[in-house]
Recover the amino acids of this structure.
């Protein structure tokens, strides 16, 4: 089976569990506070047309709309059911596509977001990143959030990918900023990088991975989010399982 079809089948098989853990109210609050708020700091996207790449059911669009209420969005996902859910949840259109074989036609976007999507495209990352860059107008922005390959526990993460049914080790892995810089060379300029991910990232956002009961997440978050702020102030990239990056189209 082709790599893109493996990822599509894998995502659709785990969709319900993924939705329940990654997009419950507590996880959405984590994304709001620790992903979107810092990612959008200093960016004026008022009235922008924004592409949501690997958009899933649209919850990242819903969150981003809170910060830029005048923006309009368009979802792109490999899964047809996800695209239909995106349209229902956001009221915006969605396109089912495989980015490794996609060439955007029509008006370019002012910005794009990809929240945890690029690491599912590693079997054809160069082609997929080129497709994303080709969707953004010159001077436009890309916000990308991905698992960090420079994390000091990345070896353990790779081992977990091999044994946990919620991962597809042949077609997904953590990424480094340097790898993305190489893929985007000549197309996108790296503006900034913010390594993130402490106890709340591990236990709240990734509760599915640790099999943390849903009922425990809200009380845990009240404690762990305080620790998250302190942890995110540590220096370097090695302590952090993920990173936020902002790019500008050349």
């Amino acid at each position: 089976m082709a790599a893109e079809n493996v990822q599509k089948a894998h995502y659709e098989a785990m969709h319900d569990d993924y939705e329940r853990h990654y997009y419950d109210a507590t996880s959405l609050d984590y994304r709001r506070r620790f992903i979107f708020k810092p990612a959008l700091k200093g960016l004026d996207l008022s009235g922008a047309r924004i592409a949501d790449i690997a958009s899933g059911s649209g919850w990242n669009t819903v969150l981003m709309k809170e910060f830029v209420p005048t923006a309009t969005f368009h979802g792109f996902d490999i899964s047809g059911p996800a695209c239909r859910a995106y349209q229902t949840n956001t009221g915006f259109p969605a396109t089912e596509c495989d980015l490794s074989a996609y060439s955007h036609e029509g008006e370019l976007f002012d910005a794009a977001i990809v929240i945890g999507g690029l690491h599912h495209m590693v079997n054809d990352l160069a082609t997929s990143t080129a497709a994303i860059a080709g969707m953004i107008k010159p001077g436009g922005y890309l916000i990308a959030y991905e698992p960090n390959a420079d994390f000091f526990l990345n070896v353990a993460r790779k081992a977990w990918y091999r044994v946990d049914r919620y991962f597809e080790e042949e077609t997904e892995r953590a990424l480094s900023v340097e790898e993305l810089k190489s893929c985007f060379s000549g197309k996108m300029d790296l503006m900034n990088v913010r390594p993130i991910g402490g106890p709340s990232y591990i236990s709240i956002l990734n509760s599915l991975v640790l099999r943390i009961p849903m009922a425990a997440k809200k009380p845990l978050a009240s404690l762990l989010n305080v620790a998250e702020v302190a942890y995110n102030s540590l220096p370097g990239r090695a302590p952090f399982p993920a990173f936020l990056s902002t790019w500008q189209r050349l």
